[in-house]
Here is the input.
Amino acid sequence: MDNNFTKTKFRYKYLPFNEDSLKIISEGTIKFTDPEDFNDPFDCDPIYDIKYIPKYYHGLPKDKKRECISKASNIPIEKVADEMIDELKPSAGFGTDEYHNYHKKYYQKNPQELDNLITNISQIPPKDITDRIRQSALGEITGKYTQPNMGICSLSRVALNILMWAHYADCHTGFVVEFCIPTEIKQAQIPSHSDMLNFLSCRKVDYSEIRPVMDPSNTNRQDELKKFLLTKSKEWSYEQEERVLGLDIKPGIYPYARDIILKSVFAGVSMKDSDYQILKTTVDEVNNKAGLNVALHKVKKNESEFGLFVPKRNDL
Here is the structure.
């Protein structure tokens, strides 16, 4: 364990055997995936309850409100006002044209009142343009949690799960890498986000029978991030997943602190002998060149029950 680490945890990455996957060992790089490419259509796709939107909308600065209206309508603000005026016609004592023309001229002469109308727009019945404005506000909300510059790296708390080996390590022909990840670092400053990514600092995924509901008016962003990025169906609970959240990096391949946190490699029970030799050579070269002590183990089948084990690793 690095002397700067006061606490650590072991986490695991399942991989198929191929040239790109070997780079996690040889080059010290790891993939951060776009959430849209996940294999679960419900992943990172919570429910946005429309009832929370007016409260969120009223909390936006006025320029953001105008932006929501503009995105929703693709027409000038004054035209939006016209459409909103039309919605209020039933409450007027005028004829339709007289009512509309009166208010159109009124808002042209009193731009501050137009701003007030924009401010209070979510109190108008949700029809036509105002419904589209609510949807635009919804887009503004989702933008707080989703952006193109976001990648996620998935790890697991378990190294010997039969299903994980089948699904993510190419039917047990691939391998698993073991990381010793710091949970506390002995230093004066709090680690930066880049430090957290470098050490693959990961957060636990929660499993639920009910899809999370986002509350955009919630000022605790961590609560909403957990709902959005760290909640999955209970059917995935066997994965015991933890995620490295790259909230400000694009999906792609990035270096990590290999020389510090890479501890072991486990070869799948069905790995070809030729692939095992390549894997062994890769590990040996890294150990020799970088002065590391990464261990290579071969996973075995339990003789008496459905299970896997690694000789001399009773801690798994």
